[in-house]
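pasting for the record
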Amino acid sequence: MADLDHIDEHILRELSRDGRISNLALADKVGLSPSACLRRVAALEKTGVISGYRAVLNRAALGTGFVAYVTVGLNQHTKHAQEAFERAMAQAPEVRECHNITGQVEYLLRVEAADLPSYKRFHTEVLGTVEQVHAITSYVVMGSPKDERA
């Protein structure tokens, strides 16, 4: 685990808000010289604290504004069943996130589709055909007043 001070944490907050911020602007926001700021960012990248930079996409503008969180229970609790399910989800473009979780089910998915009929097709023709799946529960997102994913 990285040993971060308050300046590193401030740098990370600013980069999380705007990964394209210039080093000069970032240095000004965190109270460092540009060279000191660049060294800190490089160190955060080298240690893996910063693992990459991403563009935040407007899914509605791309035609995939329908979002559902889906819990999935498997019919077997084996490594083989988990690996097979994970391979199937890796092949499904609608699945934007797949998390192996604790609790009454094994997986939590974030699924994005164009609309309800598109989601129904995914639910029936993709998720519903994976032999390891025992239970599916869908939670349709009606709004996202806070979403800080990069």
